[in-house]
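User: Okay, second chain of the day. Same drill as before: sequence in, structure tokens out.
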Amino acid sequence: MKAMIMSAGLGTRLGKITQSIPKVLVDINGKTLLQHAVEYCCRNGFGDIIVNVHYMADMVEEEVKRLTSMGFKISISDERELLLENGGGLYKARHFFDNNPFLVYNADIVTDLDLSRLLKCHLENNALATLAVRRRPGSRFLLVDDKGVLRGWRNISTGEEILKAESDEGLSLMGFSSVQIVEPEIFKFMREGIYSVVDLYLNLAETGRIFTLTFDEGYWFNVGTPENLENVRSFLKSSRTTW
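Assistant: Same drill. Structure tokens below.
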């Protein structure tokens, strides 16, 4: 099965670290973050991968060449001229996908989430997209009904809200894990441009075909800050996980 690893971000929150290397090349206990992401996708059955590049693209492409020499099957989607965010970036890479559901995975996510469960949920619900979500601290949340259907979005810090239901009664606040199974049919609803997949999913929420699946067990990290980076290194080393 096919996957897209979102790898083009600037990584500005990592400060001095990403002044010399892109975020996806930071070291996690002897492997780059990108290699960890590629191995995770492949272990879960998503072995045909496309990676988008923008910031320090040449360095990322060299790492892709190294990983390809190890036997991984990886293509490049070039966003050197313009960073498209994950929505526009996905649409640009649409030629890569076939008629089967595929994985979209942010390279800065470290998790042991079971993708077979996510795929099963996606197929059973005839979903356009199925998003892995989690009950976790934060300020921006998806609003989800008791069937797991996306019904809106809320920023609890600013009070901003997008509601695609008659009311917010019975809706749960869930953190998006930046892991999703997507149906190629979704490209019919997309366009060129710079936008996020969350904006896309909220636009499609009224279809009732944007689903979520909750994963509160296991671990999930976003390698977005120096502190989080050290937390991931320490956790993976102490847990002796195969991630």
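The chain has a mean pLDDT of 96.

User: Thanks, on to the next one.
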